[in-house]
Amino acid sequence: MMKKNFKKLKQFEANLEALNEHKDLFMQQMANDLAAMFLAEVKKRTPVGKGTFEVVGKIKRGKNKGKPKLKKISQGGSLRKSWYIVKAIKHRDYYIASIFNPMEYAAYVENGHRQKVGRYVPILGKRLKANFVEGHHMMKLSAELVEQEGYAYVQQRFYEFLRRHLYG
Q1: What is the DSSP letter of 118?
Q2: What would the mean pLDDT of 151-166 be, rounded to a whole number?
Q3: Nearest Cα to 53, choosing from 120, 127, 124?
Q4: 28 burial class (0-12, 13-18, 19+ CB within 10 angstroms)?
Q5: Which of 11, 83, 93, 123 is most exposed by smallest CB count within 10 Å?
Q6: What is the 3 state secondary structure string of 84-117?
Q7: What's the rounded Cα separation, in Å, for the pair 164 and 168?
Q8: Can you list the alpha helix ranges (DSSP code H) found in the chain?
């Protein structure tokens, strides 16, 4: 009669159970990492305005005499600074991480917008010249990049996860 040693098989079974226990944490971490990757890209692509100005009078002397005198109220970059992530949560069998920008004009910067030609905008001190302002598509382009690069990133991290849990 032959003696069988199942010690390694028992160890492998224990490793598989540990792998199963940690899979949800791994998947949540991957969703958060991809969201962070997306956030970094979308922030880079978000345009920064010149700031907000207020008309405080008219210029009295020089070549700009009679033009509105502007006072800077705030720096530009409000749209860029407003991006934030909501951490990944489990919904049925998948994880959802959300990226938001609460600025009311974010969609217009993303997709573009129509405007009335000839309308005077006091804050700019100019009349509008273009019928349509093209969007910057910062979210669309960032999503495409994360889709391309994210697959390789998740695959590499998954192999590391398997190695760590199956082979110690």
Answers
A1: T
A2: 90
A3: 124
A4: middle
A5: 93
A6: EEEEEEEECCEEEEEEECCCCCHHHHHHEEECCC
A7: 5
A8: 7-45, 78-81, 106-111, 138-166
Query: pTM of the prediction?
Result: 0.75
How far apart are the C-alpha atoms of 8 and 25, rounded to whole Å?
26
Q: Dump pLDDT digits (tens) for 99-149.
A: 999 999 999 999 999 999 999 988 777 899 999 999 999 999 999 999 999
Mind listing the pLDDT tens digit for each residue in 72-103? 777 778 899 999 999 999 998 899 999 999 99
Estimate to the nearest angstrom the gap between the alpha carbon of 11 and the chain centroid: 42
Contact 126, 100 (CB under 8 A): no
3-state class (DSSP) for residue 7: helix
Task: With beta carbons less than 8 A apart as the criterion, state whether 103 and 82 touch.
Answer: yes
Other CB atoms within 10 A of residue 95 CB = 19
| Tokens of residue 135, six digits | 């969007």
Q: Which of 158, 149, 153 is nearest to 26 (CA)?
A: 158
